[in-house]
Fold this sequence. Notes:
CATH superfamily of the largest domain in chain A: NagB/RpiA/CoA transferase-like
Number of strands of chain B: 8
Structural class of chain A: alpha/beta
Strand content of chain A: 5-15%
Shape of chain A: globular
Bound molecules: iron/sulfur cluster
Structural class of chain B: alpha/beta
Strand content of chain B: 5-15%
Largest sheet of chain B: 4 strands, parallel
Oligomer: heterodimer
CATH topology of the largest domain in chain B: Rossmann fold
Number of helices of chain A: 22
Strand order of the largest sheet of chain A: 1-10-7-4-2-3
Number of domains of chain B: 2
Radius of gyration of chain B: 18 Å
Distance between the termini of chain A: 66 Å
Strand order of the largest sheet of chain B: 2-1-3-4
Order of helices and strands of chain B: EHHEHHEHHEHEHHEHHEHEH
Radius of gyration of chain A: 25 Å
Helix content of chain A: 40-55%
Helix content of chain B: 40-55%
CATH class of the largest domain in chain A: Alpha Beta
Number of strands of chain A: 10
Largest interface: A-B, 79 and 78 residues
Shape of chain B: globular
Amino acid sequence: MGALPIIDHPDASREFVTNKARSHWHDEALWFVRSKRDKQAHSVPEWEYLREQASEVKTHTIANLDRYLVEFEKNATAMGATVHWASDAADHNRIVHQILKDHGTLRIVKSKSMLTEECGLNHYLEDNGIEVVDTDLGERIVQLRHETPSHIVLPAIHIKKEEVGETFHTHLGTDKGASDPQYLTEAARGHLRGKFLSGEIGITGVNFGIADTGGIVVCTNEGNADLGVSLPRVHIACMGIEKLLPRHQDLAIFTRLLARSATGQPITSYTSHFHGPRDANSELHIVLVDNGRSKLRESETFRHALHCIRCGACMNTCPVYRRSGGHSYRTTVPGPIGSVLSPARDSKAHKSLPYACSLCGSCTDVCPVKIPLHHQLLAWRKELVGQDRMPKSKTVPMKAASYLFQHPKLFALAGKAGRTALRWLPHFATHNRLNKWTIARELPLPPKESFRDWYRKNRG
Amino acid sequence: MSVALFVPCYVDQFYPDVAIATLELLERLGVDVVFPQGQTCCGQPMANTGCTEDARPVAKRNVAMFADYDAVVCPSGSCTSMVRNHYDQFFDSGDTAFQHVKSRTFELCEYLYDVLEVRKLDVRFPHRVSLHQSCHGLRELRLGPSSEVMTPRVDKMRSLLDMVADLEWSLPTRVDECCGFGGTFAVDEAELSASMGRDRIADHLSTGSEVIVSADMSCLMHMQGLIRREKNPTQVMHIAQVLVGRPIKELAKTE
Ligand code: SF4
C-alpha cells in the first residue's frame, strides 16, 4: 500500500454531520442498539464481574502471547489444521492466494471478517481474477455498492432500506421501489444461496482461537459462515493473533459479553466451533496475522487496545460516531477503538482521529473488556504533539495560554480586556467565520467584573 | 480547618455568580473558605490538546497554590478530575504536597454530600428542572451512576437537588449523553459539537424543562450559546446557584 492521504476528520465528516436528517436518523438507529445493550447488561447481575474477568484474561493472554500462540499452533496442527503465519497484510493476502492457486479456485464465498478488510483481501483477490462474494447480508450490500463497511458489526448501518431496495433492484433484479426488509432479505437469500452452491473455497474470520484445544470459534447471526464452509472442501480462517484465549473454559466469559455488547442479543444466533478439518477429504487453513499487533503490544500505554473483541459497542455509544457516520474515520475500524488503533499504524495519516472525541468517556464505560478508550485517545494527543505532528494553529495558542496562566496578574488583565472587548465590539466583529465557536453559538455575555474583582471588593 | 475555593478560569471571567454562589453556599454551611488570589487555571485546555509540557508549569503552580489548605473545593467536575486523575504525569508519586492536594481536592457536590454530609437544605426553587450530568463529573469522578456501568451508585447531584423545596424534575430521555462541549473539541469539530449540543438541548426540553442544571458550567456555556442563538427561553444554571436559592433569571436579551 502506498502512502495514505492525511485524513482530516472535521472535513471528512462534514457532509454527514451537516445533513441533519441523515445524521439524526443514524444517531437514533445506533442509540436503539445501545439501548438494547443496556437492557441485556442489566439482565446479567454479574455484568461488571464478567468485564473484570474478561479484561484480566486478555491482559494475561497478551502478556504471554508468544507461548499461547505456539500452544495453539501445536494443538490446531495435531487436529489436522494447517497453520500459516503472516507478518503483515501483504503476507496474509499472498498466503490466502497461494491456497486458492493450489486448488485452482477462481471463486470464494467469504463471511464477514474485519481482518480481511484490514488487509484489503477482496481487492487483492479481485485484481488476481478471483470472484469474491461476501455472504453476510450487510457486507453484501456494501460490496454491491462498491463501498466499505461503516461499522464493524453492522456494516451497512449507514444505508437506508430504500437505498438497499435500489441497490438490489440494480444488481439482483428486485422490484423497483421495493423497500420491505422481509422481501429484500428473501431476495438476498436466494441470490446468496446460488453463490454458496458455487463457492469453491470458504473464507471466514475468527472471533476466538483457543490455545488449549487448538479450536477456533466463529460467531454470526445469519449462519452464513457455517454455510460458507460446510459446502466447500476447503476452509480458510483468518485470525488476528490477539484473538487468542488460553483455555476453552475462558470462552464463556466472552461469548456472554460479545453479543450483548454488540447488538443487545443474549448470544449470537450461530456460535460455531471448528476443531480441525471436518473429514479426511477436507482442509482447514488457519492464517495467523500480525500486521502491527506485535508492535502495539510493545507499547505500555496502548497494549490494552489488543483486548478488543470487535463488539462495536464503543461505536454505538460514541456521540461523535453516531453523528458523523463510520466512513468519516476513513479506516477499517472506525469509532473510538479505531481512533486508538489507526494512529498506531500511521500516526501522520490518522492524526486527527484522537481529536474527533469530546472525551465523554462513554466508550470506556461500555467496553466489555475494559479498554480505557478515552484515556488512550488522550494519550494519543500527547504522543502526537510530542511527535510534532500537530499544526501550529493547535499548539501555539496553548503556549500562549500556558504563559497567561502562569502570570495571574496578566491573566486578570487579559480577562478584563477580553470581557470589555466582548461588551463593546460590534456583533459582526466577534461573530464571524474566523471564530468557530460562533458558527452556531453565541458567546457568553461578559459580566462587568470577574469573580476575583468581586472577591477583592467584598471579601478582601 | 481552612478550605480554599478553586474557581475555573472561565467561571472567574464569565460566570462570577457561579463562584459567588459556591462561596455563599459554603459559608452558609459554616465552612471557613478563602479564595487564593494567585490561582488561574487547572491546565486542562493544554493537557486535553496534548500539549503536556505547556500544562506542566500550570499544574505545578496550582499544587503550590493549594498545598497549605485542608481542602480545596471546586465547582466543576472537569477541573477536579484534572487534578485528581490527570496530574500524576507532572509529579513524582512521592511528592507529598501533590498527594495532599490530589486527595483533598473535591468537586462541590462531592464535598457537600460526602464530606459535609449535607442531608437537608433550607432552600426553595419552584421550577421544572432537568439535570445535565457532565461527563467528567459522572465518568471520571463517579458523582452518580453512569448508564453504561451496572455498578449501583448514589447520584450525589440528584440527591442534593432533591433537598430543594418545590423543585420539579423533568429528566432527559438519554440520562447522561454528552452535550458535545469537550473543550477545544467545541472549536476543532465545531459542527459536530454544535449538533451534539442541539440534540442534547432538545432532549432536555422535550419534557418541559425550564432550567437545565449542571455541576459543570462549561457544558452549560456551550448549551447556553446554542440556546441563545436560537432565542429559546430556556435557562441554564449551575447547581450552586440553585442550591443557594438564586432566583431564575430572565433570559438575557440577545443582541
Ligand atoms: S474497544 Fe471495546 S467496545 Fe470497542 S469494539 Fe473493542 S471490545 Fe467492543
